[in-house]
Amino acid sequence: MYLRMFGDRDRSKAAQAILVARAFRKRLFPNEIFDEHAWGMLLVLFIAFADGEVISEIALLERVGLSVTAGRRWIAHLVGEDHIELREDGGGVTLSETALTKLRIFLDEACDVSNWLVSVRH
C-alpha cells in the first residue's frame, strides 16, 4: 500500500531524512565518490521553504559544507538551470517554481518507496 505525502512539512521531514542519511554515508565513504553539492542545496532550500525561511547564500553554503568560492559556482549553475533564484532584494536564495514542483514529486515518490519497503518487512 502506498501512502501519499500530505504537505510540504511532511516532505520537509523526508528531505531532512535524506540529508541525515547522507551525513551517515559521509562518515563511512569519501566525499569524492558522492559529490552531490547541488542536490544538497536543493534539499536544504526545500526545507527552508517548508519552514517559511529565506536563507542567504552564505547560510546555504554553510548548511551544505561548501566554501564560498565553490558554493557560488554551484549557485550560478543552479540559477542557470532554473532550479534556484536569487532574490532581487539581495535577501537570499530560493527554489524556482519548477524545482519546487519537481522536489515535491521526488519526495512523494521517495516516501512511497519507503512506505512500500516498510510494508514488505511486515
Give structural notes.
It comes from Sphingomonas aurantiaca. This is MarR family transcriptional regulator. By secondary structure, the protein is mostly helical. The chain has a single domain, classed as Orthogonal Bundle (Arc Repressor Mutant, subunit A), CATH 1.10.10.10. 66% of the residues lie in helices and 5% in strands. It has helices spanning 8-28, 37-50, 57-64, 68-80, 97-121; strands at residues 84-86, 93-95. Strands 1-2 form a two-stranded antiparallel sheet. Helix 1 (8-28) packs antiparallel against helix 2, helix 1 packs across helix 5 (97-121) and helix 2 (37-50) packs across helix 3. The longest helix has 25 residues, at 97-121.
Helices and strands, in N-to-C order? HHHHEEH
Structural class of the secondary elements?
mainly alpha
Q: Can you tell me the residue ranges where pLDDT is under 50 for at least 5 consecutive residues? A: none
User: What is the CATH fold-level name?
Assistant: Arc Repressor Mutant, subunit A
Proportion of residues in β-strands: under 5%
Number of strands: 2
User: Would you tell me the overall average pLDDT?
Assistant: 86
Number of helices: 5
State the end-to-end distance.
Answer: 12 Å
Query: Can you say what the CATH homologous superfamily is?
Result: Winged helix-like DNA-binding domain superfamily/Winged helix DNA-binding domain
Helix content: 55-70%
Radius of gyration: 15 Å
The largest pleated sheet is described as: 2 strands, antiparallel
